[in-house]
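Hi W.,

Here's what went into the run:
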Amino acid sequence: MTVLARSAEVTRRYGGVLALDRVSIDIRAGELVGLLGPNGAGKSTLINLFVGLRRPTSGTVELFGGSPLDPLIRRNIGVTPQETGLPEVLRVGEIADFVSAHFPDRVGTPELLERFGLQDLIKRQVGGLSGGQRRRLAVALAFAGRPKMVFLDEPTTGLDVEARRALWDGIRAFHDDGGTVLLTSHYLEEIEALAQRVVVVGHGRVLADDTVRAVRDMVGVRRVSLNAGALPELPGVLGVEHDDGRTHLVTTDPDRLVVELVRSGTPFSGLEIRPTTLEEAFLAITSKESTRV
Amino acid sequence: MSDLILVHTRYQVLEQMRIPISWVASAFFPAASMLAFVVPFAADDPTAATRATGAMMMIGAISAALIGLSITVSQDREQPWNPYLRTLPAGPLPRFAGRIITTMAIMVVAVIPVLVIAALFTEAAITWPRLLMGVAALLAGSVPFMLIGLFIGFVLPSKAAIAVSQLLFFPMCILGGLFLPPQMMPDFVQTISLYVPSRGAVELVWSATTGTAADTVGLVMLAVWTVAAAVAAVWAYRRDEGRRFA
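Here's what came out:
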């Protein structure tokens, strides 16, 4: 399959901060890829490189076989703006017209707004829209130029359940027609509902790049918390955190870990085992990364 | 490409029109200067009054270009909408051109009160063709100031851009002979005057409105400044990757 977006050994620094560290990803035509990771993991930097907002410090970024810095290449893509920045004094219809005018093949403002349930707001100034309405307008703008690929950054943050489902249907319909999607989200549920492939980034690296099922299994880890001094080497530990004298171990196999802990004879108290959230699993995986470095 | 220039111009004019105070502010300063400096001192001599009116128009134009653009561009850069616009399939030209045309529209509006004051309270005299040529010269002469405004807006954060553009504005107007005729200034200032873009610009306006010959050095320097400012503005745009934490 054709690769629409590719990063090869891409490193991006901001002064002394390493935002991306030799990241290589291929996104092929027709894929719906979810990009997951905690804040500051490098998600936004990666998207900014793909849409031509930033240049890599080293390595190469390709979009539709060319450079994302080339405006003609960018006719193939659609991007969501942050809804907080939409120009307040302009009307919904004016913004849709303005964005559409950049593309040779347009959906047309009335149809575009109707698709996202915004047709009644065409004359309204953005300053008077609710947060959810702004979010829907921002997502709609990504589709104004009949793109082949869209970059959706947190498309449903701040939407109620019904609006979220409606938006998911829209994204699925675009994908069913052959569209390619790169989506970021804080919600595992959203990635599960939409994506086939998931890329997990943390500390500027790709930590996992697999099917939704495989990543979900990886996320199905437990958190074992206890009060103890120095611990011996324990099996299956993905990550260790300390706070207020408590030690948190993240593991795929809590039973074996506890057995080994008891067998080692190390004194401990306050043992607690609970499922991790997606966020915690990421933090565990990413902190393991950083301790290895 | 010209379609996109129109689209960007329409968008920026709409934004400006919905905030009418920005037009009032641009029109106020040259009109007030006209009443304070020209009406009491140069109203009786037709040539002097016409030249002074031209200089006041130029002050308004430089203010709209240099201060207006550097502030709007630097403030826009701090909004998340700005990086989004950069993902749209357009190079720098439509936005640059849209901003320049919008700023020219503001300048033309700012000229109206100056002309009304000149007509009512001074002996300034001009024919219609000369007036139109004068406005054209005003717009052409302000191009380097618009480009410098864009340059400042692209390299500095908004608070610094406001300060730097004001710091440039007054020396530019004084050295160019806009507040006082160049002949009344000390010798060394008269020499420097020929090398600042405001002098070439106002020479162009004086030549268009009164038919006097424009100073060649001033005009050549105006062209040099225009080219240099264009290079700097395009460089600043390309280098600008937006503010990281914006």
